[in-house]
Structure formats: structure tokens, C-alpha cells
Amino acid sequence: MKLSNEWFTALSDNGAGDLVTVVGRDSLAEFILSGKLKERVEITWKYEPSDKGMPNGHDAERMEAVQETIRKAMEKDKLSILTAVYTGGGEKIWVFYTRTVRVFGERLNEILAPFELLPISIYTEADPEWEEYKDMYEMKEWSVD
What we know:
Blueprint: E1 7-13, E2 19-25, H1 29-34, E3 39-46, H2 57-75, E4 80-88, E5 91-98, H3 101-112, E6 120-126, H4 131-137
Antiparallel strand pairs: 1-2, 2-4, 3-5, 3-6, 4-5
Helix pairs in contact: 2-3
């Protein structure tokens, strides 16, 4: 299975009226059908939002560095893949699908060790049908360029 680097961007809201930017990964049908990535991991980073609900420049840079570090480490052997990133309303959420939450957690601890303590929380759930991804993917029709 080849992991695409094709993404789309759509705009949504968080239910409280805050704008949320949704960045979703495209072309993942093979991964869904394989049945190998049955667990979903959501990493949430809460931040003090700017007047438009987005992170300030410093936070945005830190988040980008953390995101790339996590993505590369998790995707190098396809243990996990990043499928979506939600940003807005004072939080950034990275959504991964993984083979095993236990190994994901171990690797996450290893790769984040060099960083100062980050304001993140982690949520996991069995999602063998990729329901969250399919819901997010429906936003592709409203993607912006």
C-alpha cells in the first residue's frame, strides 16, 4: 500500500461559532479496506486563540514542528497514518489511525521526549470502520484552494 501525500482543506465550525480549518488526507481507500488500522488516536493541543480562533505565530510554528515529527515517526513503517488535522476555536487536533494504541503511545513518548512538556491530551477509540474519517471526508466537496 502506498501512502499518498494528497490533502484537501475545508472550512467548518466547532458548534460554538468558531471557524475550524479541516485538512484531510485523500486516497486512503486501500488502508481502510486492509483492515489493519483499526484504532483511532486523537491528539489535542489546546492553545490561547487569536481573535479569529487560530493559534498565534509562535504556537503555530511549534505545532507544525511537532506535527511533522510525529507524522514522520508514525508513518515511516505505517504503524499509524495521519488522516486529518482540525485547527480552530482554541485547539488543534491530529487524527491518526493506528495498528496498535500501545505501540503508538510508546513511540509518541520517545519522539516527544526532546520537546518541552506540551499541552496535549490523547483520546483513543476503536474505529475499525473509519467512521470519523468518513465523516470528515464528506467535507471534501466544500474544499477550498
